[in-house]
Amino acid sequence: MSSDLRPLANKRILLGVTGGIAAYKSADLARRLRDAGAEVRVVMTRAATEFITPLTMQAVSGNPVHLHLLDPQTEAGMGHIELARWADAVLVAPASAGFMAKVAHGLADDLLGALCLATAAPLALAPAMNRLMWSNPATQDNRRVLESRGVRLFGPAEGEQACGEVGPGRMLEPHALVEMTAGLFAGGCLSGLNIVITAGPTREAIDPVRFISNRSSGKMGYAIAVAAQEAGATVTLISGPVVLPVPPRLKRVNVESAVQMYEAVLANVRDCDIFIGAAAVADYHPVSRAAHKIKKGQNEMTLVLERSPDILASVAALPEAPYTVGFAAETENLEVHARAKLAAKDVDMVAANWVGGPDTGFESDENALLLIWEGGGAELPCAPKDRLARELIAVIAERYHAKNKAQTS
């Protein structure tokens, strides 16, 4: 791979490592950062050295590891100032609950804490801790303080933890952290723009306990919302019922039915620049909803349905419509149906994907997209949905700016 094509080519990444079992992943992270083109220097807290040795981190980073706040080997003994000036970005992975508290309250009693205060570079923390420590109100208060000051939080993920419990608190995997670090230098292709995104399924009530829905998990729409934020946009996420955590720093509007989503979109879309309809909205909903649970009776029951409002076509038909992107989830004739939707809805772009298979679509963590617009298109091959979302946002930004340039020229 040519060095100028690597996502972190010529970038200087200062990797901080704090005390926690997830520190074993930091060696792999340092190696992957270098593979992505970055020059890596490592700062470890004293607690971190109890989990992984400085010699290991020196070997994988290719540079001496820094441990002490007042280092006689550095200029004037002020290693934190030198490192703070050197870094293009500071990534602390893992970031323990204690270290989050330290940064939130401006404590500088060790090298890593001091350089986090001294640097003007972007600062990102990858939290790693027990699920109860993460959900503790003190930690959540610190999270909000950090985010309000512009500190990026990468994660945490959910899953099985070293303590044997299951829940949020796992450090993100190294490959994901490399991608998110690269996103710090994305250049803000959507900077200053307002984007409305729909995500997830809708639920169409039959009675108080039953509903019609679909298999959409919301993962793709939520990944697009995060990617749009990374690109500098202000994001409003209109979400059907999902079990995903709320991405920080965006406005989320929760809805249940297709009608509710339609109303929420129209209430928010008029001031936006780009609309991305990634939700799997029910095409039909019951004409009436039973007031009480329907009891089992006859062998057959007739359910009368009527068309739901067409959100995508309604947005595209607005007098000053935003750049409008629709999704098409198909089980056959992908390109044919995508082109038909582009014409029928009069939208700017359709992102089409296969569903119904075991490896892509609604419930998978990976997906692939066929993008169609008037006079062109692109294929985004199968990839994790967070990476695919960044690629999609890059294409949308390019097409949006090209359309605006054409309209003003």
Written overview of the protein:
- With 409 residues, this protein is an alpha/beta fold.
- The chain folds into 2 domains: 181 residues, Flavin prenyltransferase-like (Rossmann fold, 3-Layer(aba) Sandwich), CATH 3.40.50; 205 residues, 3-Layer(aba) Sandwich (Rossmann fold), CATH 3.40.50.
- It contains 13 helices and 19 strands.
- The strands form 5 sheets. An 8-stranded mixed sheet has the order 12-11-8-13-16-17-18-19, sandwiched between helices. Strands 2-1-3-4-5 form a 5-stranded parallel sheet, with helices on both faces. A two-stranded antiparallel sheet has the order 6-7.
- β6 and β7 form a beta hairpin.
- It is globular, with a radius of gyration of 24 Å.
- The N terminus is likely disordered.
| Strand arrangement in the largest pleated sheet | 12-11-8-13-16-17-18-19
Q: What's the pLDDT, averaged over the residues?
A: 89
**Number of helices in the DSSP assignment:** 13
Would you tell me which CATH topology of the largest domain applies? Rossmann fold
Text of the CATH class of the largest domain:
Alpha Beta
Question: How many β strands by DSSP?
Answer: 19
Helix % is 25-40%
* Coarse morphology: globular
Number of domains: 2
Structural class: alpha/beta
